[in-house]
Amino acid sequence: MGTVHNEIDNWLAANLYGELSEEEQRQLHTHLVDCAACRKTHQETKTMNKILEETLAQQKPDPTFEQRMLASFRQRIPERSGPIKLLADLMRLRAAQVTAVAAVLLGLVQLGRMITGETATAPGARDRYANEQLLEQPAQMAGSEPARTGALDKSDELAAGKPKDLALAAPQSSSESRSKLQRDFKAFPATVAPAEAAQAEMAAKETGSEPQAMSYAAEQSAAETPAPEVANRKLIRNATVELEIVNFDDAVQKITALAKEERGYVATTDSQKQANGKLRGEVVVKVLPENLDRFLQKVRGFGELKNQTLGTEDVTKAYFDTDARLKNARVMEQRLIDMLKTKTGKVSDLLQVEKELGRVREEIEKMQGELKYWDSQVQFATVTISLAEKDMEEPAAFLLKERAQLALYAPDVEKIYNDIKALASAKVQITNAQLNRDYSGRVSAQMSMLIAPEESEAVIARTKGFGRVENFQTQTERIAQGGEGMSENARTKRDKVQLNITISREEQEQALQQTSLRIRTSSVDEKPKELRALAEKQGGRVRSSSFSRDPDGREFANVSLRVPMKNYPALIQSLNSLGKVENVSVQRQDRTGTQVDEANAPADISIQVYSQGNIVSHESGLLATLRRTLAQSAGAIMWSLRMIGVAVAFLGPWVIALIALIWITRRVIRARQSRS
Amino acid sequence: MDASEREQYQAAIHGDREAFEMIIRTHSRALFAIAYGILQNREEAEDVVQDSLVRAWKTRWRVRDPEKFPAWLAAIARYRAHDVLRRRRTIPLPPETIEISETEAIDPTTLDLQLHSALAALPELHRAALTLRYFEEMDYRTIENTLGLTNGALRGILGRALASMRKQLRPVLASTD
User: Fold this and answer.
1) Does the beta carbon of B59 lie under 8 angstroms from any beta carbon of chain A?
2) Helix boundaries (H) for A576-621
3) Which residues in chain B (145-174) have CB-CB distances under 8 A to chain A?
């Protein structure tokens, strides 16, 4: 009951607000019956509750309270509408959020690439820039140099015209034209580029429109010849044709026949024979001008047309001028002749007249010659036909060049070097000989020689016999002369053979096979000598040997031998006589692709001869064991301490950083909570 | 808390306006009770409720657990009411409210005034609990949830609040009996 009395306020309040269970209510009532003080309190509480209820009832919000709250909320937070609301709704989805973040990241990456100036971004802007540049530059060129003449002006126009074409083409074709533009654009700073491009364009146009131009020329001439006013015009027509034909003589015959047919004649023929037996030449044909076009058409059929020009020169004015002057001169001549006939006046005067007459006659003859020349030129058109047989570029002959590389191993380099030098003769010329000896006594030699082709096989075979061939390579090259490509009937000639020889000492040669083994025996001392004897019997040598004894009384002798491969099995067999052979390991190095004389190739054997010795350590007994154990444990403890130190040094900063991070995060969270 | 309520809170947190307006309809009276309990002034309490709702809408994304939404709403209202109260404290109270002589006759207005001053003497939390009880007639568990109290704490709070008021109002009570 004590609890109820002590907490009577709580109990009364709970009773008032209907929070007591039946059991509790019963308890409270029992207490109230017993305790007068609590009864009084109960009474007061009930009264106060009534007052409170009455008073606070007045303060309760009116029925329209919720509506007011809603209205004010709506007024202060107006509902968003249209796309913004849609966007806001969309952004509530997790997928949309992820997408948005990805898009922002991508955007940043793209921005970074644009800033750092990497390519393949914002192609539109760049293309426009390139186009503007292309359009501007040639325009400036054309504007700044108006004083240029014909062809140059034309090239400028073309240069100006080309980028315009490109600019027009650019929007239509996407990637291809863009790359072309960019290429052009890159070349721009060099300023020569536009001119080059223009030339290329011009060339392309010319080749492309060649048939058109020719037909145009043909039309022109066809229109001129039959016209009546043209009849007394003096026109010199000439043409050049370049043809590639199969057979020169055939072509000349055909042309001659054709010229006759067209009432013309062959004026000159000349031909040259090339080194590869092909003919090249020129035929000049005169034909009547009115037949020129037909003639050209026919000539074109004889072979492949490479080039053709057609020209007309109008000499009418000069011709008639000369003709008028000739008439004047004739009148003058007549008058002078008349003067001589009358024979009046002084002799000196007569002489003067005679002299004048000579000059006039000379002039007349000159003019007559000129007129006659023109007449002949006008009467006949000149056609110059250049003929070249097909495959003009075929080579006339081939040269076979042989090069050989020989690497030799020899026991005595110097002797071989001198032997090879002694081979020198008129047909074997040594171009380079070099003997190298370094401070450690290693000797090597390098030689180069040129050998006449017929001697080469014999000399190379002899050289090979001087030592062990490590490597031999030959290389044959066929060089075309006077042309390129292949030819069926060109002669082939052998050139001098170049031979390069490298001689090294055998010692430096790497062994083909390396063997290592151990021999256990009771007495080590004698074995190296026995080994040496065995090796020499098999034609080998001892390369190195060593002897050692360790504190435990074990003895080792290391011997390294080298024998030819052919004697290797016999030597291994004989080793069994020395003791127990153990731990045999064999390593073979096959050098593929080279010709190796395997029987004579060196094989290395390294042998360790050892005795068992007394295995038990002289430091034995209880005390020594104890000491060793203690020392080892101390070492182990020190090692673990060191490792712990390392771990602390590694992990410490991370742990501190982690703790700091957690602390800051918690502070931030707490601050945010307290704010809301 | 049943599933549909929970869903409603979740939707409101995610920005569903209709759900939030529904919450305004159902919860604004409780918020008013809290604010009034602290401020003892209807106009100010209404302003506080309005401010709290706007603020709650703007910072709704901070609520992780939809279960806690009502408590969070109540906490906002409490802090705002507290802010208003603190600002008001600097303005001196009108002199006539301070002292009431014991000898004066007890008319309803003096009773009212005395009750209010007794209420004003209580801690803010106690006042809020009392008003929630008297305005909304909530049971102990709901009040505890709304005010973010631990289970069973309210029993002591209300007991102490009533005891304190009783002591203050003893003369008045004695006369009315």
Assistant:
1) yes
2) none
3) 155-156, 158-163, 165-166, 169-170, 172-173
Query: Are A65 and B72 a contacting pair at CB < 8 A?
Result: no
Contact B130 A19 (CB under 8 A): no
State the pLDDT at residue A194. Answer: 47
Residue B159 has its nearest CB partner, among A10, A70, A77, at A10
User: pLDDT of B45-71, one tens digit each?
Assistant: 889 999 998 988 888 888 888 888 888
Q: Which of A484, A507, A530 is the last residue of a domain?
A: A507
Indicate if the pLDDT at residue A157 is higher than 80: no
Q: Which residues of B touch A16 (CB under 8 A)?
A: 162
Average pLDDT over residues B167-172: 77
Give the full edge-to-edge strand order of the sheet including A580-588.
A541-549, A555-564, A602-610, A513-520, A580-588
Q: CA torsion sign, A381 to A386 to A387 to A390?
A: negative
A9, burial (CB in 10 Å: exposed 0-12, middle 13-18, buried 19+): buried
Q: Cα A306 to the chain's mean position, in Å?
A: 37
Mean pLDDT over residues A576-602, rounded?
75
Token representation of residue A29:
């009532």
Handedness of CA A356, A362, A364, A370 (dihedral sign): negative
Q: Which of A368, A392, A416 is the last residue of a domain?
A: A392
Residue B55 · residue B76 · CB < 8 Å: yes
State whether A13 and A159 are in the same domain: no
**Residue B35 forms contact with A (CB below 8 Å):** no
Hey, is A397 helix, strand or coil?
Answer: strand
Q: Any CB–CB contact under 8 A between B9 and chain A?
A: no
Examine the domain organization and report whether A384 and A404 are in the same domain.
Answer: no
Chain A residue at shortest CA distance from B176: A47
Quick: pLDDT tens for A260-279. 888 888 888 888 887 777 78
pLDDT confidence bin for A422, thresholds 50/70/90: confident
Q: What is the pLDDT of residues A198-210, one digit of tens each?
A: 454 554 444 444 4
Give residue B101's pLDDT: 45
Residue A241 one-letter amino acid: V
Query: Is residue A319 located within the same domain as residue A226?
Result: yes
Question: Which residues of A fall within a CB distance of 8 Å from B161?
Answer: 13
B54: chain A residues, CB-CB within 8 Å: 73, 76-77
Return phi, psi of residue A279, to 5°: -105, 150
Q: Are residues A252 and A372 in the same domain?
A: yes
Using one digit for the tens of pLDDT, what is the confidence trace for A311-338? Answer: 888 888 888 888 898 899 889 888 888 8
Residue B71's closest chain A neighbor by CA? A676
- A397-406 burial, b for 16+ CB within 10 Å, e for fewer? bbeeebebeb
User: Which pLDDT tens digit goes with each residue over A74-98?
Assistant: 888 877 666 776 776 666 667 778 8
A299 shares a domain with A201: no
| ipTM for this prediction | 0.78
> Cβ distance A420 to A466 under 8 Å?
yes
- Measured between CB atoms, which of B62, B133, B169 is closest to A48? B169
Domains of chain A: total: 6
CA distance B2 to chain A (A): 23
The alpha-carbon gap from A13 to the nearest alpha carbon of chain B, in Å, equals 5
- Please indicate, yes or no, whether residues A264 and A298 belong to a single structural domain of this protein: yes
Q: Is residue A492 part of a domain?
A: yes
Let me know whether A451 and A326 are in one domain. no
Q: Which of A1-10, A118-127, A258-267, B119-128 has the lowest mean pLDDT?
A: A118-127
Q: What is the largest CA-CA distance in chain B?
A: 60
Residues of A in contact with B135 (CB under 8 A): 56, 59-61
Close Cβ partners of B157 (under 8 Å, ≥ 6 residues apart): B125, B126, B129, B149
Which pLDDT does position A214 carry in this prediction?
47
Partners of residue A68 in chain B, C-beta under 8 Å: 46
